[in-house]
Amino acid sequence: MTVRLAAPPPGGGLPTLDLDRLAERAQALLGAVGRPDAELSLRLADDAEMAELNGSWRGRPRPTDVLSFSLVEGEHADHRGALLGDVVIGLAVADRQAGEAGHSLEDELDRLLIHGLLHLLGHDHEQAEEARAMRREEERLREALGA
Q1: pTM
Q2: CA–CA separation, 116 vs 94, rounded Å?
Q3: Residue 136 maps to which CATH number?
Q4: What is the end-to-end Cα distance of the chain in Å, rounded?
Q5: Which of these ranges, 75-79, 101-105, 135-139, has the smallest mean pLDDT?
Q6: Which domain holds residue 106?
Q7: Exposed e or buried b for every residue in 14-41, given b needs 16+ CB within 10 A?
Q8: CB 32 within 8 A of CB 11
């Protein structure tokens, strides 16, 4: 299993964090979803990058907490190899949400990583039953991480 992690350069008002811990958590999650040999691309982005991506792909030009770009489904699925896709986490948004929720940034990153990974694997929350199933799987994965 491989986790490719990219983060903005230090500074710029973004919080610093333990990138090795985040990569280890991502690898543990791949095992917990039964995809130990899969690859995952994980990017931490600032507000400007998140607003650009969210605007380009979802028509909502504002920062968001997490975006997923799955290669499991769609026209390129047959050519993806082991790569499940990309999860992009808005680091500044995650930091704000952690403060509002009263938990650590690391806990918020775990939550967003789980959510993004489940989207890569085809989970959704548009319909009530899908949302319930996704919440159950999110809880199972949090428990698998010991979170």
Answers
A1: 0.89
A2: 13
A3: 3.40.390.30
A4: 22
A5: 75-79
A6: 2-145
A7: beebeeeebbebbbbbbebbebeebbbb
A8: no
